[in-house]
């Protein structure tokens, strides 16, 4: 029930709408409860044995008047329900908007590590499906709960006022209702949480396999993917059938209990009518009250159990996501990093992704402004981790990293990242126009700035050749750019951002020499006058680096310029010889 409690608190901000809904519910319930009273008066008036006059205001105290009043009451109650429906739908839509924005804002604030460990599809399922499910709770279940609870309270008072004996009889079936409910509750909620979990799995699997369709196709796994997708969906179907079966079975039993209750009231009440202790109209009105206003809302409330069970899992996932704290905490009160020169110092830096499993084991490294550092080393030696720490995607476990003397943890995070540009191995571009992709580096870039960046990135002729130039869409409905063109576009984007520090993860994939030259030229222009950290794969980059850092198992083993390290004849000399030979062979 904890989740529902928190949910109700979350809804607190819509208090105005809630009060309005509560007021309308009350009026609507009071109006609809007038119907049985009117029916009673009509029947008692029509009683052939002893017609009783109407106790209604002047113009309505006739048969026609009573009918008109009946219609007016229904109309007014319908109108109230309409206004209430609209108000609740609006509140539901507000909730959808607010919760999705809240979740998305929270997601944007989470650290990179969270996304490395989570399946995107599951996150999408929560933001889209789970929030939608909870919206259903507001617009569906909550209306029922409020409306029917008010009706139940009103009807209880009315039936006891009319006939306490019959009222007690009508209520005698309630222990059986409760038992019936308790019997089904666990099954329904267990099954609902399985459905909800499975839905997340199906969505994340779909997203993952479509994103990785190249792998699926190149391993010819299409049929096995279709099989496993069908399998998951069949499980989903079975669980849903079971859920509906459980829900319907609960409802059928509740209907049966209702029938018993109605029969008992009719039987005992009927005898009272025969004996003359009760008027026919009183019995009919009592029966309408009991069946339509007592039993029917009770059954509706019982049926809600299914929806509540389904929503519980959704709420848990929404709250779990909202409760996930970022690993790297951005102190918004910390001072912004002033415009930097770009001096970076790693002081005795130790870092572990998992407790005690150090992947950086005491790094000391000083980089002067404008220098180019090349990280070299075997796979898993810690190169990527070094640059992740610089952008503060993770915090160091021991030691510290400073930029121009500022400890990274003591400055505002965004002001840090704004001054670090990143060009990754695989350039990530969005499904938008070339202009929009470029402007991601600098939102207010002028056309001249765009053109200069594009020129420096050797892209001018490529863009000019496109039908709509800068306004050409990339991806799905637009052009497909080659790997080299994408990379140059990413370089132009970084040029526009004009960061003082540059992080570059060079592409390992071999590009043809012409493309390689174009990219290299663009990169050289990008790196000019910036402190650059390069995870180097190309000999040309390594050779001209101001400092080559050779890493092995999380430690710096060698450091120096190309010629210094060759002279040492250590790890670097060996790596270089290997790579040089490999490049010669590849070129041959
Ligand atoms: N997100 C992560 N969670 C846990 N361990 C990680 C994570 N990222 C990297 N590691 C581990 O940290 C170690 C260093 O990885 P890192 O990616 O820094 O190496 P690298 O030198 O960049 O390797 P490569 O050249 O293959 O990219 C490896 O043992 C790797 O398995």
UniProtKB/TrEMBL annotation:
EC number annotated for this UniProt entry: 3.6.3.-
Domain of life: Bacteria
Keywords assigned: ATP-binding, Hydrolase, Membrane, Nucleotide-binding, Transmembrane, Transmembrane helix, Transport
Keyword Membrane included in the entry's annotation: yes
Compartmental location: Cell membrane
Domain ABC transporter intervals: 344-578
SMART domains: AAA
Domain ABC transmembrane type-1: 19-310
Example of a GO cellular component annotation carried by this entry: plasma membrane
InterPro entries: AAA+_ATPase, ABC1_TM_dom, ABC1_TM_sf, ABC_transporter-like_ATP-bd, ABC_transporter-like_CS, P-loop_NTPase, Type_1_exporter
TM segment ranges: 20-43, 63-84, 137-160, 166-183, 250-271, 283-302
Coiled coil region boundaries: none
Membrane topology term: Multi-pass membrane protein
Signal peptide start and end residues: none
A Pfam family reported for this protein in Swiss-Prot or TrEMBL: ABC_tran
Gene Ontology MF terms: ABC-type transporter activity; ATP binding; ATP hydrolysis activity; ATPase-coupled lipid transmembrane transporter activity
PANTHER family: ATP-BINDING CASSETTE SUB-FAMILY B, ATP-BINDING CASSETTE SUB-FAMILY B MEMBER 6
Protein name in UniProt: Subfamily B ATP-binding cassette protein MsbA
Native source species: Armatimonas rosea
């Amino acid at each position: 029930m904890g989740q529902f409690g928190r949910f109700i608190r979350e809804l607190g901000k819509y208090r105005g709408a809630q009060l309005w809904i509560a007021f309308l519910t009350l009026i609507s319930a009071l109006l609809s409860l007038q119907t049985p009273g009117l029916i009673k008066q009509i029947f008692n008036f029509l009683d052939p044995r002893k017609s009783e006059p109407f106790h209604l205001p002047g113009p309505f105290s006739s048969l026609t008047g009573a009918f008109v009043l009946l219609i007016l009451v229904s109309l007014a109650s319908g109108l109230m329900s309409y206004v209430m429906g609209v108000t609740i739908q609006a509140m539901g839509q507000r909730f959808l908007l607010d919760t999705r924005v809240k979740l998305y804002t929270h997601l944007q604030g989470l650290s990179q590590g969270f996304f490395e460990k989570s399946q995107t599809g599951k996150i999408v399922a929560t933001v889209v499906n789970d929030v939608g499910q909870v919206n259903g709770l507001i617009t569906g279940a909550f209306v029922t709960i409020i409306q029917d609870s008010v009706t139940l309270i009103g009807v209880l008072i009315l039936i006891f006022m009319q006939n306490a004996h019959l009222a007690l009889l009508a209520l005698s079936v309630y222990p059986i209702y409760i038992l019936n409910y308790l019997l089904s509750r666990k099954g329904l909620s267990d099954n609902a949480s399985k459905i909800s979990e499975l839905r997340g799995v199906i969505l994340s699997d779909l997203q993952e396999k479509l994103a990785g369709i190249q792998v699926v196709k190149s391993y010819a796994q299409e049929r096995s993917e279709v099989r496993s997708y069908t399998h998951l969906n069949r499980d989903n179907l079975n669980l849903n059938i079971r859920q509906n079966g459980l829900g319907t079975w609960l409802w059928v039993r509740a209907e049966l209990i209702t029938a018993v209750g109605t029969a008992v009231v009719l039987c005992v009440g009927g005898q009272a009518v025969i004996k003359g202790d009760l008027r026919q109209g009183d019995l009919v009105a009592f029966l309408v009250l009991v069946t339509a206003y007592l039993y029917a809302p009770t059954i509706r409330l019982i049926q809600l159990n299914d929806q509540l069970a389904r929503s519980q899992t959704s709420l848990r996932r929404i709250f779990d996501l909202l409760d996930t704290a970022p690993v790297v905490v951005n102190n918004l009160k910390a001072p912004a990093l002033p415009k930097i020169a770009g001096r970076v110092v790693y002081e005795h830096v130790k870092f572990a992704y998992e407790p005690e499993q150090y992947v950086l084991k005491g790094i000391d490294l000083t980089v002067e402004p404008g220098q180019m550092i090349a990280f070299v080393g075997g796979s898993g030696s810690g190169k990527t981790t070094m640059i992740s720490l610089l952008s503060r995607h993770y915090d160091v476990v021991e030691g510290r990293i400073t930029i121009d003397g500022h400890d990274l943890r003591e400055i505002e995070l965004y002001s840090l990242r704004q001054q670090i540009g990143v060009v990754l191995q695989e350039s990530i571009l969005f499904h938008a126009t070339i202009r929009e992709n470029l402007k991601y580096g600098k939102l207010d870039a002028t056309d001249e700035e765009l053109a200069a960046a594009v020129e420096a990135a050797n892209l001018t002729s490529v863009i000019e050749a496109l039908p709509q130039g800068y306004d050409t869409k990339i991806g799905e409905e637009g052009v497909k750019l080659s790997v080299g063109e994408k990379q140059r576009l990413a370089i132009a984007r970084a040029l526009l951002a004009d960061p003082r520090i540059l992080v570059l993860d060079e592409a390992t994939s071999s590009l043809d020499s012409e493309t390689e030259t174009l990219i290299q030229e663009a990169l050289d222009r990008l790196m000019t006058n910036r402190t650059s950290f390069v995870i180097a794969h190309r000999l040309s980059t390594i050779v001209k680096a101001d400092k080559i850092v050779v890493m092995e198992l999380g430690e710096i083993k060698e450091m120096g310029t190309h010629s210094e390290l060759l002279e040492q004849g250590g790890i670097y000399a060996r790596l270089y010889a290997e790579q040089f030979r490999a490049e010669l062979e590849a070129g041959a």
